Amino acid sequence: MSSGRIMVNCGGSDNQVSVKVDMIYPSKMLSAEGDWLHHSTIKAINDAFGGKVCWKRMPDSSGANFLALSGPLPDLTSWSDSVPSKLASTVKLWNPCVHLQ
User: From start to end of 1-101, where are the E strands?
Assistant: First the structure.
């Protein structure tokens, strides 16, 4: 299927840098754009898909797992409008994997 996408539950943070950041800033991660840089599974998936991957970190109440989605960032508003309300609130947490300078 040429238009298919893959979504992967990558588990929690698995890098010592993230653990140190969590200890220093327990109420938040480094930044909305940079969280994925500290997750080796998302970095590997991003490399495998040529940098065309999106990610999100689930809220602590939902396990704080990281998810990866192949392909470009979808239209979050229409996606959010098309899913049940329980899922809609976290749709807008998706971000493209972008290297910070």
Answer: 7-11, 53-57, 66-70, 95-96
